[in-house]
Amino acid sequence: MEEQNSQKYWVIINGVRKGPMTLDELVRLAPGPATPVWRQGLDDWCAVSSLPELDGCSSAPVPPVPVIPPNYVAQQAQPQYTNPMNSYSGSVNTPRTEQPAEAMPPTYLAWSIVAMLLCCLVPGIVALIYSTKVSSRFSMGDYAGAKAASENAAMWIIVTVVCGIIAVPFQILLAFV
Questions:
Q1: Which is deepest, 72, 92, 140, 174, by most CB within 10 Å?
Q2: How many CB atoms lie within 10 A of CB 28?
Q3: What are phi and psi of 143, to 5 degrees?
Q4: Can the peptide bond before residue 106 be classed as cis, meaning omega within 30 degrees of 0?
């Protein structure tokens, strides 16, 4: 029983992946019997009703299995699962395909702070804002947005340093006046 309490579960409710959570937290959500759930040790997402430890925690009765005629051929391609840490698409019975995990683009956070403090404040703040957007967008699964924020942060760091270099001669002139 201790193993089940330490087990972490992920569930998809209304198209939103929730987790990790304990068995007690999952039971409190009262998912439907067809709700997709995943835990370590499972090869794929499965319905809540198919896990023995979740027996009886469903909020609704199990729907009957539709009878499909033997000569039925599906006309549409069925959506595929991705790994449990990515977004869910498809039904519970479709196989999943592994997608290579993308590496998070560099945040340039330390460079943004240094450039802001030593070179020029205003464009340095813009670089800092873009730097902070990288990890939050990446963790939400917005890989393109994270890459764009990383590229914008790098560009604004360059702008900050160039502004600082341009400002140095004027600062020297003003120091002697």
A1: 92
A2: 11
A3: -65, -40
A4: no
